[in-house]
Specification:
With 193 residues, the protein is an alpha/beta fold. The protein has one domain: Rossmann fold (3-Layer(aba) Sandwich), CATH 3.40.50.720. Strands 3-2-1-4-5 form a five-stranded parallel sheet, with helices on both faces. One of its GO terms (molecular function) is oxidoreductase activity. Belongs to the short-chain dehydrogenases/reductases (SDR) family.
């Protein structure tokens, strides 16, 4: 008898959880603005294409003109590309000002900080400081800089921030700047929350 009671309670719990999750879904996605970094290739490129298909107004930042042209060729007219090197503070500020003029009073509904580099994964005693500095500049400092500059627009729209990290933010497998940068992203996410 106890087994059947527990089974019934388990089914009711799953049903209740399912309904609560459905109530948390965001509706009316079309026309909402999203800014994504690192859209030349990989996850950023795929995210830009996916959000574009769903009807979002996507600002896709690319490091290279080639990446921007290739992305623009396979997406709708609604998606806009912009060149951005997240290591360059002046570039980040200019792009943030441009985004502000585009979204105006609506604000920015989503920010996806995806830009990142790996750097050489090798034992620490084989590396120089530049092997640490470059991934930290892109993966951590660049991410923080973009977030800080876009935060007023996110607040205006009561938007969301997605900072792409990895398991490397919890467990380091080798030397190099990648793992310290991802640990930093995890810490920044905690402080931002």
């Amino acid at each position: 008898m106890l087994f059947y009671v527990l089974l019934f309670l388990g089914i009711v719990s799953l049903w209740w959880h399912w309904r609560a999750r459905d109530r948390m879904k965001v509706t009316n996605l079309t026309g909402k603005y999203i800014f994504i970094t690192g859209c030349d290739t990989g996850f950023g490129n795929m995210a830009a294409k996916t959000f574009d298909k769903k009807g979002f107004r996507v600002f896709a930042s690319c490091l290279t003109e080639t990446g921007a042209k290739e992305l623009k060729a396979v997406t709708s007219e609604q998606l806009q590309t912009v060149l951005l090197d997240v290591r360059d503070s002046d570039s980040v500020k200019k792009v943030a000002a441009w985004v502000k003029t585009e979204v105006q009073s609506e604000g920015l509904w989503g920010l996806v900080n995806n830009a990142g580099i790996m750097g050489p994964p090798a034992p620490t005693d084989w590396l120089d400081i530049k092997h640490f500095r470059e991934p930290i500049e892109v993966n951590l400092i660049g991410l923080i800089n973009v977030t800080i500059n876009m935060l007023p627009l996110i607040k205006k729209a009561k938007g969301r921030i997605v900072n792409v990290s990895s398991v490397g933010g919890r467990l380091a497998f080798s030397g190099g700047g990648y793992f310290p940068s991802k640990f930093g992203v995890e810490g920044f996410n905690d402080s931002l929350r």
